[in-house]
Amino acid sequence: MFILWRYILKEHVGPFLFGLAIITLVFLLNIIFRELGRILSRGLGLSIIAEFFLLNMAWIIALAIPMAVLIASLMAFGRLSGDGEITAMKAGGVSILNIMLPVFFASIVLALFLIWFNNNVLPDANYRTKLLASDIFRKRPTLNIEPGVMYNDIDDYSMLVQSIEGKTDTSYVTSISIEDNSDPGKSTFIHAKRGKIFLDQTGVLYLILYDGYMHELNLDKMEQYSTIDFPRQTVSISVPDMVLTRTEEGYRGDREKSSQMMLAEVNANRIDLAERRQRAAGLIHGYFMKYLPLHQGDTAGVDTPLPEETIDNPYRLERIRSDNIHLKNQVKSEISSLAALDKENWRLLVEVHKKYSIPIACIVFVLIGAPLGIMARRGSLAVAGGIAFLFFLLYWATLIGGEELADNQFISPFWAMWTANILCGAGGIYLIFHSIHEATFIDWDRLNIFAKKPLFKRNPV
Fold it and tell me: Which candidate in 80, 155, 216, 294 could, as Cys together with 85 as Cys, close a disulfide (CB 3.0–4.6 Å)?
Protein backbone atom coordinates (compact mmCIF):
# COMPACT_ATOMS: atom_id res chain seq x y z
CA MET A 1 0.00 0.00 0.00
CA PHE A 2 2.90 2.37 0.74
CA ILE A 3 4.34 1.76 -2.73
CA LEU A 4 0.95 2.45 -4.28
CA TRP A 5 0.52 5.68 -2.31
CA ARG A 6 3.99 6.83 -3.34
CA TYR A 7 3.19 6.09 -6.98
CA ILE A 8 -0.09 8.02 -6.85
CA LEU A 9 1.57 11.02 -5.18
CA LYS A 10 4.39 10.91 -7.72
CA GLU A 11 1.81 11.17 -10.50
CA HIS A 12 0.57 14.42 -8.94
CA VAL A 13 3.93 16.16 -8.54
CA GLY A 14 4.42 17.01 -12.22
CA PRO A 15 0.90 18.36 -12.87
CA PHE A 16 0.97 20.26 -9.57
CA LEU A 17 4.26 22.02 -10.37
CA PHE A 18 3.14 22.68 -13.92
CA GLY A 19 -0.19 24.13 -12.81
CA LEU A 20 1.53 26.20 -10.10
CA ALA A 21 3.99 27.60 -12.63
CA ILE A 22 1.28 28.49 -15.17
CA ILE A 23 -0.98 30.18 -12.60
CA THR A 24 1.96 32.07 -11.07
CA LEU A 25 3.01 33.21 -14.54
CA VAL A 26 -0.50 34.49 -15.27
CA PHE A 27 -0.56 36.53 -12.05
CA LEU A 28 2.96 37.86 -12.66
CA LEU A 29 2.11 38.90 -16.20
CA ASN A 30 -0.89 40.77 -14.85
CA ILE A 31 1.36 42.67 -12.42
CA ILE A 32 3.94 43.30 -15.15
CA PHE A 33 1.42 44.75 -17.58
CA ARG A 34 -0.15 46.88 -14.84
CA GLU A 35 2.88 48.14 -12.91
CA LEU A 36 6.13 47.60 -14.82
CA GLY A 37 5.81 50.70 -17.00
CA ARG A 38 5.29 52.99 -14.03
CA ILE A 39 8.11 51.32 -12.08
CA LEU A 40 10.63 51.57 -14.92
CA SER A 41 9.81 55.25 -15.41
CA ARG A 42 11.06 55.93 -11.87
CA GLY A 43 14.63 55.00 -12.75
CA LEU A 44 14.93 52.17 -10.21
CA GLY A 45 17.66 49.58 -10.04
CA LEU A 46 17.10 45.93 -10.90
CA SER A 47 17.39 44.92 -7.25
CA ILE A 48 14.43 47.14 -6.25
CA ILE A 49 12.33 45.89 -9.17
CA ALA A 50 13.18 42.26 -8.32
CA GLU A 51 12.30 42.88 -4.65
CA PHE A 52 8.93 44.35 -5.64
CA PHE A 53 7.98 41.31 -7.72
CA LEU A 54 9.40 38.87 -5.16
CA LEU A 55 7.26 40.40 -2.41
CA ASN A 56 4.18 40.08 -4.62
CA MET A 57 4.92 36.38 -4.97
CA ALA A 58 3.56 35.83 -1.44
CA TRP A 59 -0.10 36.52 -2.25
CA ILE A 60 0.30 34.81 -5.64
CA ILE A 61 1.45 31.59 -3.95
CA ALA A 62 -1.41 31.78 -1.44
CA LEU A 63 -3.93 31.83 -4.31
CA ALA A 64 -2.11 29.62 -6.82
CA ILE A 65 -1.55 26.54 -4.63
CA PRO A 66 -5.27 25.61 -4.20
CA MET A 67 -5.90 26.00 -7.93
CA ALA A 68 -2.79 23.96 -8.74
CA VAL A 69 -4.12 21.21 -6.46
CA LEU A 70 -7.33 21.09 -8.48
CA ILE A 71 -5.45 20.93 -11.79
CA ALA A 72 -3.12 18.20 -10.49
CA SER A 73 -6.03 16.07 -9.21
CA LEU A 74 -7.90 16.33 -12.49
CA MET A 75 -4.88 15.55 -14.66
CA ALA A 76 -3.32 12.81 -12.51
CA PHE A 77 -6.51 10.85 -11.83
CA GLY A 78 -7.63 11.44 -15.41
CA ARG A 79 -4.45 9.85 -16.74
CA LEU A 80 -4.66 6.95 -14.30
CA SER A 81 -8.27 6.37 -15.32
CA GLY A 82 -7.59 6.72 -19.04
CA ASP A 83 -4.71 4.19 -18.93
CA GLY A 84 -6.82 1.68 -17.02
CA GLU A 85 -4.70 1.86 -13.87
CA ILE A 86 -7.66 2.80 -11.72
CA THR A 87 -9.45 -0.32 -12.99
CA ALA A 88 -6.39 -2.44 -12.23
CA MET A 89 -6.16 -1.05 -8.70
CA LYS A 90 -9.82 -1.75 -8.08
CA ALA A 91 -9.37 -5.29 -9.43
CA GLY A 92 -6.56 -5.75 -6.93
CA GLY A 93 -8.89 -4.91 -4.08
CA VAL A 94 -8.03 -1.23 -3.64
CA SER A 95 -11.11 0.90 -3.15
CA ILE A 96 -11.67 4.36 -4.61
CA LEU A 97 -11.33 5.89 -1.16
CA ASN A 98 -7.94 4.20 -0.62
CA ILE A 99 -6.77 5.48 -4.00
CA MET A 100 -7.74 9.02 -3.04
CA LEU A 101 -6.42 8.79 0.53
CA PRO A 102 -2.74 9.71 -0.11
CA VAL A 103 -3.75 12.78 -2.11
CA PHE A 104 -6.22 13.73 0.61
CA PHE A 105 -3.47 13.53 3.26
CA ALA A 106 -1.14 15.54 1.02
CA SER A 107 -3.81 18.22 0.63
CA ILE A 108 -4.12 18.42 4.43
CA VAL A 109 -0.36 19.00 4.67
CA LEU A 110 -0.61 21.73 2.02
CA ALA A 111 -3.55 23.31 3.85
CA LEU A 112 -1.61 23.38 7.14
CA PHE A 113 1.37 24.90 5.34
CA LEU A 114 -0.82 27.61 3.80
CA ILE A 115 -2.41 28.38 7.18
CA TRP A 116 1.08 28.93 8.62
CA PHE A 117 2.10 30.86 5.49
CA ASN A 118 -0.98 33.13 5.63
CA ASN A 119 -0.34 34.02 9.26
CA ASN A 120 3.45 34.31 9.36
CA VAL A 121 4.77 35.14 5.88
CA LEU A 122 1.93 36.73 3.89
CA PRO A 123 1.10 39.62 6.30
CA ASP A 124 4.71 40.82 6.47
CA ALA A 125 5.14 40.42 2.71
CA ASN A 126 1.97 42.43 2.04
CA TYR A 127 3.13 45.07 4.53
CA ARG A 128 6.55 45.41 2.90
CA THR A 129 4.96 45.45 -0.56
CA LYS A 130 2.70 48.33 0.44
CA LEU A 131 5.59 50.32 1.91
CA LEU A 132 7.81 49.69 -1.11
CA ALA A 133 5.04 50.57 -3.59
CA SER A 134 4.38 53.80 -1.69
CA ASP A 135 8.10 54.66 -1.74
CA ILE A 136 8.37 53.87 -5.46
CA PHE A 137 5.41 55.96 -6.56
CA ARG A 138 6.49 58.84 -4.31
CA LYS A 139 9.86 58.94 -6.04
CA ARG A 140 10.24 61.32 -8.95
CA PRO A 141 11.42 60.05 -12.32
CA THR A 142 15.13 60.38 -13.03
CA LEU A 143 16.53 63.22 -15.08
CA ASN A 144 15.30 62.90 -18.62
CA ILE A 145 17.11 65.77 -20.28
CA GLU A 146 16.90 65.87 -24.06
CA PRO A 147 19.05 68.12 -26.28
CA GLY A 148 17.20 71.21 -27.46
CA VAL A 149 14.18 70.56 -25.18
CA MET A 150 13.47 72.69 -22.12
CA TYR A 151 13.55 70.58 -18.95
CA ASN A 152 11.05 71.81 -16.29
CA ASP A 153 10.57 68.76 -14.04
CA ILE A 154 12.42 70.37 -11.11
CA ASP A 155 10.39 73.00 -9.27
CA ASP A 156 11.62 76.59 -9.77
CA TYR A 157 14.29 75.52 -12.26
CA SER A 158 14.41 75.35 -16.07
CA MET A 159 17.26 73.79 -17.99
CA LEU A 160 18.26 73.64 -21.67
CA VAL A 161 21.29 71.87 -23.16
CA GLN A 162 22.62 71.62 -26.68
CA SER A 163 24.05 68.10 -26.37
CA ILE A 164 24.28 65.47 -23.65
CA GLU A 165 26.35 62.32 -23.20
CA GLY A 166 25.66 59.95 -20.33
CA LYS A 167 28.43 57.92 -18.69
CA THR A 168 27.60 55.74 -15.66
CA ASP A 169 26.04 58.13 -13.10
CA THR A 170 27.28 61.38 -14.68
CA SER A 171 25.95 63.29 -17.70
CA TYR A 172 28.27 65.56 -19.71
CA VAL A 173 26.54 68.46 -21.44
CA THR A 174 27.49 71.36 -23.70
CA SER A 175 26.00 74.84 -23.98
CA ILE A 176 23.84 74.54 -20.86
CA SER A 177 21.44 77.31 -19.78
CA ILE A 178 19.74 77.37 -16.36
CA GLU A 179 16.98 79.64 -15.08
CA ASP A 180 16.79 79.74 -11.28
CA ASN A 181 13.60 81.09 -9.64
CA SER A 182 14.01 79.37 -6.27
CA ASP A 183 14.48 82.70 -4.50
CA PRO A 184 11.21 84.75 -4.70
CA GLY A 185 13.20 88.01 -4.58
CA LYS A 186 15.69 87.12 -7.32
CA SER A 187 15.77 85.85 -10.87
CA THR A 188 19.02 84.15 -11.91
CA PHE A 189 20.14 83.04 -15.35
CA ILE A 190 23.27 80.91 -15.81
CA HIS A 191 24.92 79.85 -19.04
CA ALA A 192 28.04 77.72 -19.47
CA LYS A 193 29.88 76.27 -22.44
CA ARG A 194 30.09 72.84 -20.87
CA GLY A 195 29.37 71.00 -17.63
CA LYS A 196 28.57 67.74 -15.91
CA ILE A 197 25.51 66.69 -13.92
CA PHE A 198 25.21 63.97 -11.29
CA LEU A 199 22.89 63.06 -8.40
CA ASP A 200 24.30 61.92 -5.06
CA GLN A 201 22.73 59.46 -2.65
CA THR A 202 21.34 62.21 -0.39
CA GLY A 203 19.09 63.62 -3.10
CA VAL A 204 21.21 66.63 -4.12
CA LEU A 205 21.65 67.33 -7.83
CA TYR A 206 25.05 68.82 -8.63
CA LEU A 207 25.78 70.82 -11.78
CA ILE A 208 29.48 71.61 -12.26
CA LEU A 209 29.73 74.29 -14.94
CA TYR A 210 32.77 75.56 -16.86
CA ASP A 211 33.44 78.78 -18.79
CA GLY A 212 30.19 80.62 -18.26
CA TYR A 213 28.46 83.65 -16.90
CA MET A 214 25.62 84.39 -14.45
CA HIS A 215 23.06 87.20 -14.59
CA GLU A 216 21.14 88.05 -11.43
CA LEU A 217 18.20 90.48 -11.11
CA ASN A 218 16.77 91.71 -7.81
CA LEU A 219 12.98 91.67 -8.29
CA ASP A 220 12.40 94.01 -5.36
CA LYS A 221 14.92 96.57 -6.65
CA MET A 222 14.90 96.30 -10.42
CA GLU A 223 17.85 98.69 -10.75
CA GLN A 224 20.12 96.14 -9.04
CA TYR A 225 21.39 93.93 -11.86
CA SER A 226 24.68 92.03 -11.71
CA THR A 227 26.73 89.94 -14.15
CA ILE A 228 29.47 87.48 -13.15
CA ASP A 229 31.85 85.54 -15.40
CA PHE A 230 33.27 82.32 -13.99
CA PRO A 231 35.72 79.62 -15.11
CA ARG A 232 34.08 77.06 -12.84
CA GLN A 233 30.82 77.14 -10.88
CA THR A 234 28.96 74.53 -8.81
CA VAL A 235 25.18 74.65 -8.56
CA SER A 236 23.45 72.33 -6.08
CA ILE A 237 19.72 71.66 -6.17
CA SER A 238 17.96 69.67 -3.47
CA VAL A 239 15.69 67.03 -5.08
CA PRO A 240 15.20 64.36 -2.39
CA ASP A 241 12.27 62.80 -4.26
CA MET A 242 14.63 61.66 -7.02
CA VAL A 243 16.29 59.23 -4.60
CA LEU A 244 14.29 56.25 -3.37
CA THR A 245 13.78 56.72 0.36
CA ARG A 246 12.78 53.50 2.06
CA THR A 247 10.06 53.70 4.71
CA GLU A 248 10.61 51.31 7.59
CA GLU A 249 7.31 51.65 9.42
CA GLY A 250 3.74 52.50 8.55
CA TYR A 251 0.11 51.62 9.20
CA ARG A 252 -0.80 47.96 8.83
CA GLY A 253 -4.08 47.23 7.10
CA ASP A 254 -6.14 44.12 7.70
CA ARG A 255 -4.27 42.19 4.99
CA GLU A 256 -0.95 43.07 6.61
CA LYS A 257 -1.91 41.48 9.93
CA SER A 258 -1.94 37.91 11.18
CA SER A 259 -5.10 36.35 12.52
CA GLN A 260 -3.75 36.70 16.08
CA MET A 261 -3.22 40.44 15.59
CA MET A 262 -6.70 40.89 14.14
CA LEU A 263 -8.38 38.85 16.88
CA ALA A 264 -6.59 40.97 19.50
CA GLU A 265 -7.91 44.07 17.75
CA VAL A 266 -11.41 42.59 17.65
CA ASN A 267 -11.29 41.95 21.41
CA ALA A 268 -10.10 45.51 22.05
CA ASN A 269 -12.94 46.83 19.89
CA ARG A 270 -15.44 44.73 21.81
CA ILE A 271 -14.24 46.24 25.08
CA ASP A 272 -14.57 49.70 23.54
CA LEU A 273 -18.06 48.80 22.31
CA ALA A 274 -19.16 47.75 25.80
CA GLU A 275 -17.79 50.99 27.30
CA ARG A 276 -19.52 53.14 24.67
CA ARG A 277 -22.83 51.34 25.14
CA GLN A 278 -22.56 51.90 28.88
CA ARG A 279 -21.71 55.56 28.29
CA ALA A 280 -24.71 56.04 26.01
CA ALA A 281 -27.01 54.32 28.51
CA GLY A 282 -25.63 56.58 31.25
CA LEU A 283 -26.36 59.71 29.22
CA ILE A 284 -29.95 58.66 28.62
CA HIS A 285 -30.45 57.57 32.24
CA GLY A 286 -29.08 60.87 33.54
CA TYR A 287 -31.42 62.81 31.27
CA PHE A 288 -34.50 60.91 32.48
CA MET A 289 -33.41 61.23 36.10
CA LYS A 290 -33.15 64.99 35.56
CA TYR A 291 -36.55 65.60 33.98
CA LEU A 292 -38.61 62.46 34.72
CA PRO A 293 -37.52 61.16 38.15
CA LEU A 294 -39.31 58.10 39.43
CA HIS A 295 -39.22 59.34 43.02
CA GLN A 296 -38.86 62.76 44.54
CA GLY A 297 -35.54 61.81 46.09
CA ASP A 298 -34.04 60.85 42.74
CA THR A 299 -33.51 64.49 41.82
CA ALA A 300 -31.00 65.02 44.59
CA GLY A 301 -27.74 66.37 43.23
CA VAL A 302 -29.31 67.01 39.82
CA ASP A 303 -29.73 70.41 38.24
CA THR A 304 -33.37 71.09 39.10
CA PRO A 305 -35.35 74.10 37.94
CA LEU A 306 -35.41 77.18 40.11
CA PRO A 307 -38.68 78.00 41.93
CA GLU A 308 -39.42 80.92 39.64
CA GLU A 309 -38.96 78.72 36.56
CA THR A 310 -42.36 77.40 35.65
CA ILE A 311 -43.17 75.15 32.72
CA ASP A 312 -44.44 78.15 30.79
CA ASN A 313 -41.31 80.18 31.43
CA PRO A 314 -39.44 80.71 28.10
CA TYR A 315 -36.04 80.37 29.83
CA ARG A 316 -37.12 77.01 31.21
CA LEU A 317 -38.25 75.84 27.75
CA GLU A 318 -35.01 77.05 26.17
CA ARG A 319 -32.94 75.12 28.70
CA ILE A 320 -34.95 71.94 28.06
CA ARG A 321 -34.53 72.38 24.30
CA SER A 322 -30.78 72.91 24.71
CA ASP A 323 -30.47 69.79 26.86
CA ASN A 324 -32.44 67.80 24.30
CA ILE A 325 -30.14 68.89 21.46
CA HIS A 326 -27.04 68.20 23.55
CA LEU A 327 -28.29 64.71 24.46
CA LYS A 328 -29.23 63.99 20.86
CA ASN A 329 -25.77 64.95 19.59
CA GLN A 330 -24.02 62.91 22.27
CA VAL A 331 -26.13 59.80 21.68
CA LYS A 332 -25.81 60.20 17.91
CA SER A 333 -22.03 60.38 18.23
CA GLU A 334 -21.94 57.25 20.39
CA ILE A 335 -24.22 55.36 17.99
CA SER A 336 -22.00 56.35 15.06
CA SER A 337 -18.91 55.15 16.91
CA LEU A 338 -20.66 51.89 17.83
CA ALA A 339 -21.62 51.26 14.20
CA ALA A 340 -18.09 52.02 12.98
CA LEU A 341 -16.49 49.70 15.55
CA ASP A 342 -18.97 46.93 14.82
CA LYS A 343 -18.36 47.20 11.08
CA GLU A 344 -14.61 47.17 11.67
CA ASN A 345 -14.95 43.96 13.69
CA TRP A 346 -16.91 42.30 10.90
CA ARG A 347 -14.28 43.31 8.36
CA LEU A 348 -11.47 41.97 10.55
CA LEU A 349 -13.29 38.69 11.16
CA VAL A 350 -13.78 38.29 7.41
CA GLU A 351 -10.00 38.47 6.95
CA VAL A 352 -9.45 36.04 9.85
CA HIS A 353 -11.78 33.45 8.30
CA LYS A 354 -10.23 34.03 4.87
CA LYS A 355 -6.78 33.05 6.17
CA TYR A 356 -8.21 29.62 6.97
CA SER A 357 -10.90 29.09 4.33
CA ILE A 358 -8.56 29.52 1.32
CA PRO A 359 -6.05 26.91 2.61
CA ILE A 360 -8.91 24.48 3.28
CA ALA A 361 -9.77 24.87 -0.42
CA CYS A 362 -6.82 22.52 -1.09
CA ILE A 363 -8.79 19.71 0.58
CA VAL A 364 -12.05 20.73 -1.08
CA PHE A 365 -10.49 20.78 -4.55
CA VAL A 366 -9.16 17.25 -4.05
CA LEU A 367 -12.71 16.14 -3.27
CA ILE A 368 -13.78 17.69 -6.59
CA GLY A 369 -10.80 16.93 -8.82
CA ALA A 370 -10.18 13.31 -7.82
CA PRO A 371 -13.65 11.90 -8.66
CA LEU A 372 -13.88 14.00 -11.83
CA GLY A 373 -10.55 12.61 -12.98
CA ILE A 374 -11.45 9.02 -12.01
CA MET A 375 -14.74 9.18 -13.92
CA ALA A 376 -12.96 10.51 -17.00
CA ARG A 377 -11.83 8.20 -19.76
CA ARG A 378 -8.68 10.09 -20.59
CA GLY A 379 -6.84 12.98 -19.01
CA SER A 380 -6.59 16.12 -21.12
CA LEU A 381 -4.61 19.21 -20.18
CA ALA A 382 -6.92 21.64 -21.99
CA VAL A 383 -10.16 20.19 -20.63
CA ALA A 384 -8.72 19.67 -17.13
CA GLY A 385 -7.45 23.23 -17.09
CA GLY A 386 -10.81 24.52 -18.31
CA ILE A 387 -12.77 22.62 -15.65
CA ALA A 388 -10.30 23.72 -12.97
CA PHE A 389 -10.65 27.32 -14.10
CA LEU A 390 -14.46 27.15 -14.01
CA PHE A 391 -14.51 25.63 -10.52
CA PHE A 392 -11.97 28.10 -9.20
CA LEU A 393 -13.83 30.98 -10.86
CA LEU A 394 -17.06 29.85 -9.19
CA TYR A 395 -15.25 29.41 -5.89
CA TRP A 396 -13.56 32.80 -6.09
CA ALA A 397 -16.73 34.60 -7.18
CA THR A 398 -18.56 33.12 -4.19
CA LEU A 399 -15.70 34.19 -1.92
CA ILE A 400 -15.59 37.76 -3.24
CA GLY A 401 -19.38 38.09 -3.14
CA GLY A 402 -19.48 36.76 0.40
CA GLU A 403 -16.76 39.19 1.47
CA GLU A 404 -18.71 42.11 0.01
CA LEU A 405 -21.91 41.01 1.77
CA ALA A 406 -20.10 40.51 5.08
CA ASP A 407 -18.35 43.89 4.88
CA ASN A 408 -21.81 45.47 4.56
CA GLN A 409 -23.08 43.25 7.41
CA PHE A 410 -25.67 41.36 5.37
CA ILE A 411 -24.27 37.93 6.32
CA SER A 412 -21.91 36.79 9.03
CA PRO A 413 -18.13 36.57 8.34
CA PHE A 414 -18.23 32.80 8.86
CA TRP A 415 -20.81 32.14 6.18
CA ALA A 416 -19.21 34.69 3.88
CA MET A 417 -15.87 32.85 3.84
CA TRP A 418 -16.96 29.24 4.31
CA THR A 419 -20.03 28.96 2.05
CA ALA A 420 -17.85 28.28 -1.01
CA ASN A 421 -15.97 25.50 0.80
CA ILE A 422 -19.18 23.96 2.12
CA LEU A 423 -20.93 23.97 -1.26
CA CYS A 424 -17.91 22.73 -3.22
CA GLY A 425 -17.12 20.15 -0.54
CA ALA A 426 -20.68 18.83 -0.64
CA GLY A 427 -20.46 18.63 -4.43
CA GLY A 428 -17.14 16.80 -4.14
CA ILE A 429 -18.58 14.23 -1.71
CA TYR A 430 -21.46 13.62 -4.13
CA LEU A 431 -18.98 13.10 -6.97
CA ILE A 432 -16.99 10.62 -4.85
CA PHE A 433 -20.07 8.47 -4.22
CA HIS A 434 -20.92 8.83 -7.90
CA SER A 435 -17.47 7.55 -8.92
CA ILE A 436 -17.67 4.61 -6.51
CA HIS A 437 -20.63 3.33 -8.55
CA GLU A 438 -18.43 3.49 -11.66
CA ALA A 439 -20.53 6.05 -13.50
CA THR A 440 -18.86 7.96 -16.34
CA PHE A 441 -19.35 11.60 -15.59
CA ILE A 442 -17.33 13.18 -18.40
CA ASP A 443 -16.58 11.74 -21.82
CA TRP A 444 -13.19 13.25 -22.55
CA ASP A 445 -13.08 11.75 -26.07
CA ARG A 446 -16.32 13.48 -27.02
CA LEU A 447 -15.08 16.78 -25.60
CA ASN A 448 -11.77 16.48 -27.46
CA ILE A 449 -13.53 15.65 -30.74
CA PHE A 450 -15.90 18.57 -30.23
CA ALA A 451 -12.94 20.89 -29.54
CA LYS A 452 -11.35 19.85 -32.87
CA LYS A 453 -14.48 20.55 -34.91
CA PRO A 454 -14.55 23.87 -36.74
CA LEU A 455 -17.06 26.40 -35.49
CA PHE A 456 -18.33 27.13 -39.04
CA LYS A 457 -18.51 24.84 -42.04
CA ARG A 458 -17.21 26.09 -45.35
CA ASN A 459 -19.87 27.12 -47.82
CA PRO A 460 -19.84 24.50 -50.64
CA VAL A 461 -20.92 27.07 -53.20
Answer: 80
Q: Across residues 435-448, what is the average pLDDT?
A: 58
Q: Which domain holds residue 132?
A: 2-137+350-452
Integer-rounded Cα radius of gyration of the chain = 35
Residue 54 pLDDT more than 90?
yes
Question: Are 81 and 374 in contact, with CB atoms under 8 Å apart?
Answer: yes
Q: Give the number of other CB atoms < 10 A from CB of residue 165.
A: 11
* Residue 170 backbone phi and psi in degrees, to 5: -120, 140
Q: Is the pLDDT of residue 443 over 90?
A: no
32, 92: one domain: yes
Work out the number of other CB atoms within 10 angstroms of the CB of residue 156: 12
Digit-coded pLDDT (tens) for 126-154: 999 999 888 887 776 666 778 888 888 78
Phi, psi of 394 (to 5 degrees): -65, -45
Residue 144 lies in a domain: no
Q: Which of 311, 343, 375 is the last residue of a domain?
A: 343
Enumerate residues 6+ apart whose C-beta is below 8 A from 210: 192, 193, 194, 195, 231, 232, 233
Q: Are residues 81 and 6 in the same domain?
A: yes
CB-based contacts of 327: which residues, under 8 Å, 6+ apart?
283, 284, 287
Say what the pTM is: 0.75
14-44: pLDDT as tens digits: 999 999 999 999 999 999 888 877 777 677 7
Strand partners, 178: 159, 190
Look at residue 315 in the predicted model and tell me its pLDDT.
67
Q: What are phi and psi of 163, to 5 degrees?
A: -145, 155
126 and 73 inside one domain: yes
Backbone CA torsion sign across 412, 414, 417, 419:
negative
